[in-house]
TrEMBL record:
PROSITE patterns: ABC_TRANSPORTER_1 (PS00211), ABC_TRANSPORTER_2 (PS50893). This is Dipeptide/oligopeptide/nickel ABC transporter ATP-binding protein. One of its GO terms (cellular component) is plasma membrane. Residues 5-253 form the ABC transporter domain. Its main location: membrane. Keywords: ATP-binding, Cell membrane, Membrane, Nucleotide-binding, Transport.
């Protein structure tokens, strides 16, 4: 059986002042039904471009230069706006941050949830309104609050409305693009809990885009770390937290404040994130990597399999070769 979602060697470029800025470069992974995976990395690492490509929401100045996205084995026309229209929001949908900007201030929320049900599912206004009321209850808002306008709701309630809208066309995959940014800590926890509950209730695959590793540890089974447009590590959350293989992942995990051992401040990773117009040669992390070797400046490490996951680092390859030599 084909996986629910497959991304194969996907590269996306943006045209910017005469330059082609390659935001993602040869990204490959698969996602199974009901899986919860986090996409982690600094801003500019390619997380959002990956998500937008999967959801068919790339901006008009983006170009898919290589690769493909498949949903249940079928190749999606992600670079063709019109051909992508029937797929959009139906298979994969996105919960964005900042619900206030995404909701229409002059329409009642029940109407905003009902709209996609009419457009995409061909429901009558009455049917769509009934479904919108059900969806409101599903996300923990009493159906009668559907008559409210967005400004009459709290930030947490508005984000729940966004989740209801994302579920309207019965997708199999929900992407949360930093869905709790701008919310207070308690509301953040409630929204993440709701996403987790909906995932099990509706058997949804959940992809959380975040830079918050505590969210990853609590809410996801698997994590993919992105750096400079490439996936550098992919594995189970338990395994990566216990034994990060990529030096960047290790530094990210070490940077989390841990009051238990007296570490209260985030320790920033030394050096600057790479410039995408002029990426460092070889491994893009080499200017910041404490373990860099001469080969790292020349060759891009490929994402290779190890027992429980994948990692793209020459260090890992060197240690594998040593192991093979020791056994020969
Ligand atoms: Fe560091 Fe080299 Fe591994 Fe890149 S490939 S992370 S520079 S050791």
């Amino acid at each position: 059986n084909a996986p629910l979602l497959e991304v194969n060697g996907l590269s996306v470029e943006y045209g910017l002042k005469g330059h082609a800025l390659r935001a993602i470069d040869g990204v490959s992974f698969a996602l199974g039904t009901g899986e919860a995976v986090a996409l982690v990395g600094e801003s500019g690492s390619g997380k959002t471009t990956t998500a937008m490509a999967i959801a068919g929401l790339l901006s008009p100045n983006a170009r898919v230069s290589e690769g493909e996205v498949r949903y249940c084995g079928e190749r999606l026309p992600i670079d063709n706006d019109a051909a992508m229209r029937p797929h959009r929001w139906s298979e994969t949908s996105v919960v964005f941050q900042g619900a206030m900007n995404a909701l229409n201030p002059v329409h009642r929320i029940v109407k905003q949830i009902a709209e996609p049900c009419m457009l995409k599912l061909g429901m009558s206004r009455g049917e769509a309104t009934a479904r919108a009321r059900e969806l409101l209850e599903l996300v923990g808002i009493p159906a009668d609050r559907g008559a409210a306008y967005p400004h009459e709701l709290s930030g947490g309630m508005r984000q729940r409305v966004m989740i209801a809208m994302a579920l309207a066309c019965r997708p199999s995959i929900i992407i949360g693009d930093e869905p709790t940014t701008a919310l207070d800590v308690i509301t953040q926890a409630q929204i993440l809990k709701l996403l987790g509950e909906l995932r099990s209730q509706l058997n949804l695959a959940l992809m959380l885009i975040t830079h918050d590793l505590s969210v990853v540890a609590e809410r996801c089974d698997r994590m993919m770390i992105m750096y400079s447009g490439r996936i550098v590590e992919d594995g189970t959350v338990a395994e990566i937290f216990a034994r990060p293989r990529h030096p960047y992942t290790r530094l990210l995990i070490e940077s989390i404040p841990n009051p238990a051992n007296g570490k209260k401040m985030i320790r920033p990773i030394p050096g600057d994130p790479p410039n995408l117009v002029n990426r460092p040669t070889g491994c893009a992390f080499h200017p910041r990597c404490p373990s860099a070797m001469p080969v790292c400046t020349r060759e891009v490490p490929s994402l290779e399999r190890f027992e429980l996951g994948h990692v793209a680092c020459h260090l890992h390859r060197a240690s594998q070769e040593e192991k093979v030599a020791a056994h020969a």
